[in-house]
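User: I'll paste a sequence; please echo it back and then give the predicted structure.

Assistant: Echoing your sequence first, then the prediction.
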Amino acid sequence: MSLVSAVWLWFLLVLAVGFVALVVACLGYLYGLLAPHLSDESAIRGANICAIGFGFVAGYPAWYLVRAGLDMHTVVSGGIAAIVVGLTAGGVGTAAITGVLRSDPSLFPTSPSNVRRRYARYLTSIFALAFGIIVVALPIVQREPLAGLGMLPVLTSLCWVATPFIFPLTVPVRRPTATERDRLEAVLDASDLSTYGVRIIDSDIHGLDGWLLDSPLSRYLFVSRVTVDACDDATLRALFVARREQKRSYTHLLKAALLTISGECILLGLLIDDFSFLLVAILAIALALLEFSALRRLRYYTDDRAAETVGATELADAFERVAVEGGITVTETPSRNWFSSTPSLSARIERLRAEAETTAGGADATGGGTASAE
């Protein structure tokens, strides 16, 4: 390709991305008008879907355009394409969030500029990493299509192992100060939770406790600065015990494994001509819905296990505290949560409150019966 053609191609690509970003910002604005009528959790989840979905819609064509326009070795051109896809998806997805914030600036409990920076960093990193993996896997799949079926579980396992090291690329993370470290170590000991290290998520957006990212090599606790500053030791212990029970049940690994099954169905439809892609896609969606239902039940089970240690009321109070600090209202419970692997926080809190009342009622009945006998 000549230099003039290459410059013209890149100019058209930038122009197209700019136009798509403008359209997506308008669509985000329309969603922002709807968001106040939803619960906070549903509104934020919808904003995430808009950002990721529009980012993918823009990044996927950019992948093919860049690879087709680069007369280079496959891996080299693929690497450049992955970077371009990351920048494209990050820009378009951030445009969607910008539109949402224009019509509903109160959706996130921090300034719009911080929200935009956070989404731009997250989306760019995630899409660049995802398409970078495709660059490595694509030559193998092209030589042996069925190899893709075996590669997906391998890639899922590798991502699980590498998550503690990839996660800091997507969010601002720092080491805890000496005071924070001493306090968190004491709470971790009280929670019977051992970690390889603790990192503070230095962002106002992350107001809900944190992440316990596990792998055979290391286990890191990522906890938000908002949570550390706003919560007392008892609240932190309740949150850490809940994370401990989730890890003991291999919640994240099981989630990845179940979603891999749906991904394998999609690959079957793409790689094997004898399978109808439409039927396979319907099967994959049906499996995903069943998997989400199972994972939501698993989260309720881990909440029950944590409540056995810290108490149902204490755990519900801890969830409410971090929700308030994160600017999330938990008074509404969505009637349907089919497309999420985690129950709404309000539903989890209501369930814990009901469990505490049942336990207290049973204790009162037992006490009354004893007194009558005496």
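Confidence is low (pLDDT under 50) at residues 369-374. The CA atoms of residues 145 and 271 lie 6 Å apart.
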